[in-house]
Write a structure and sequence with these properties.
120 residues; single chain; 4-stranded antiparallel beta sheet; 7-stranded mixed beta sheet; mainly beta; 57% strand
Length: 120
């Protein structure tokens, strides 16, 4: 079974930067898309950024111009570079990956989440 392992969260001051990483472990035939979501307690999980197999990217309006999603195909890893962080960016950030196993079964898996706290 495919698993996602996230890293890179932490505490940062407003205006600071963090880079999150999400690595895919396990044998897969394809990774069609990888997304970053975030969730604050009491709120719905929201899509922050996504990147498709052909490198198309999308961002939530609230992070456009500040966050950049990218991936390394060889390492099966997606990154979220977060700049000019604001207190309202504080949340647990989750990675999601969708694709197919070698037997063409689809998968749709989530990482364990990593806490990002923006505070002075």
């Amino acid at each position: 079974q495919v698993q996602l392992v996230e890293s890179g969260g932490g505490l940062v001051q407003p205006g600071g930067s963090l880079t999150l990483s999400c690595a895919v472990f396990g044998g897969v035939f394809s990774i069609n898309s990888m997304d970053w979501y975030r969730q604050d307690p009491g709120k719905q999980r929201e899509l922050v950024a996504s990147i498709s197999n052909d490198e198309n990217t999308n961002y939530a309006d609230s992070v456009k111009g500040r966050f950049t999603i990218s991936k390394n195909h060889a390492k099966k890893t997606v990154y979220l570079q977060m700049n000019s962080l604001k207190p309202e960016d504080t949340a647990v950030y989750y990675c999601n990956a969708r694709g197919y196993y070698s037997d063409f079964r689809p998968y749709d898996v989530w990482g364990q989440g990593t806490q990002v706290t923006v505070s002075s």
